[in-house]
Amino acid sequence: MPKPTVSYICSACAAVHKKWSGRCDACGEWNSITEEAPLSAGPTKKSLGADRGRAIALKDLATEETPPQRTKSGLSELDLVLGGGLVPASALLVGGDPGIGKSTLLLQAAASFARAGLSCVYVSGEEASAQVRMRAQRLGLSDAPVKLATETNLRDILTTLDKERPELAIIDSIQTMWADNVDSAPGSVSQVRAAAHELTTFAKRTGTAVVLVGHVTKEGQIAGPRVVEHMVDTVLYFEGERGHQFRILRAVKNRFGPADEIGVFEMTGRGLSEVTNPSALFLSERDKPAPGSAVFAGIEGTRPVLTEIQALVAPSPLGTPRRTVVGLDSGRLSTTLAVLEARCGIPFAGLDVFLNVAGGMRVTEPAADLAVAAALLSAREDVALPPDTVVFGEISLSGALRPVGQTENRLKEAQKLGFSHAIAPSRAKAGGQTGITLRHMTDLTGFVGDIFGAG
Question: Could you confirm whether the keyword Cytoplasm appears in this record (predicted)?
């Protein structure tokens, strides 16, 4: 192991000496030489060594700084997810399934920002310029002052961006970028990490907002090393089912705004159109009351959203009954079924269970537990819930119902769409007048007995 290098520095003139002495040869000061250990004394040659850096200016927590200036795109749903608009010098990562509409969304966003006065550059590494122009013509964006390029060489892209100095640069996609200083194929872990690092550094150095498009894996995670998500300031997922026209832009990380915020879009022949009232859209296909259907009043980020949870329970011809879930966590379904059987004495053995969130929405909050239980019981007993009722609440393993946050916002959204009754845990706090009759439940056993007459 190499011996760490120790230097001796004069505190008066900062002269460096190889060994200690009582008097500095440079300035003549006595007893001013002190021993300085290296910054890193690791066993490898890759340690920082004895070279010292500059001192960093430190500030206290009370220091006031001007918040970043945001630029609105004109697409209210996109601005909502970004936290109020685009922040200069920010790095954003947008992921989604192939063909879900990432390129369409970003082309529309680039056109909106360009029309708002920002200089925008769109670099495509997957499509030819003619393909991008054809999409722009179909979407009616040909008149937008967006500069277009098709290139995969990262060095050439950075040189061009450094020359143009745009306020917004979109790279589609990060998996196609190739850095000539990395000895691996495009799309590999090394290439993706190096390209993301170079582009993020460029954004911080020049003040250009950089948007990176990322592919996703079969599990729905952005492909490549997870360190890319740590590098950028904002990570957005563009979600949706191929069979539905709804698309959801979800923020899973945002250093400049709230995480878990969503923006809802509808895919049309003219591109993506904004949905300002997603609750009405997700409930638009509800007709007369049917067994197995429950309306859940949820919260996505800061926005209340009403969705329909559908369940189907049927006898299973198989030895192991099927459990099929779309739009919800399968683990939550298993837990709810276990609590219904253990605490309420309602078995689901020998029954196939199918659970779905209508409209392609994905629900992640535990407040949907009570709505899931209501849909399951409604399907099993073949009894329809009242059509003017919303349900929300978390179910504990003991069968007790736990309160959830933002009860008042949930009830106001339900009242806006014509609902007059709500079922919620007994400790749910609803301050103010919401115009909805709130029915409190203490545990799952009481809920089953009061609503379905069993327990």
Answer: no
96 is in an annotated binding site: yes
Whether 423 and 442 have beta carbons less than 8 Å apart is answered as: no
Residue 103 annotated as binding site: yes
382 annotated among ligand-binding-site residues: no
The domain ranges of the chain are: 1-48, 76-276, 281-452
CA–CA distances in Å: residue 215 to residues 174, 175, 199, 271, 380: 8, 7, 17, 20, 40
| Separation of CA 284 from chain center | 26
Give the predicted TM-score (pTM) of the model.
0.76
Shortest CA distance to 246 belongs to which of 271, 264, 262? 264
Instruction: Tell whether 25 is in a known binding site.
Output: no
Q: What is the pLDDT of residues 405-438, one digit of tens each?
A: 888 889 998 988 889 899 999 877 765 566 788 8
101 in a known ligand binding site: yes
pLDDT tens sequence across 181-216: 888 888 888 888 899 999 999 999 999 999 999 887
CATH 3.40.50.300 corresponds to the domain 76-276: yes
CATH 3.20.20.80 corresponds to the domain 281-452: no
100 among annotated binding-site residues? yes
Q: Which residues contact 26 (CB under 8 A, 6 or more apart)?
A: 10, 13, 15
Distance CA 38, CA 234 (A): 36
For residue 399, say whether it is annotated as part of any ligand binding site.
no
425 annotated as ligand-binding: no
Length of the chain in terms of residues written: 455
* Omega cis (within 30) before 112: no
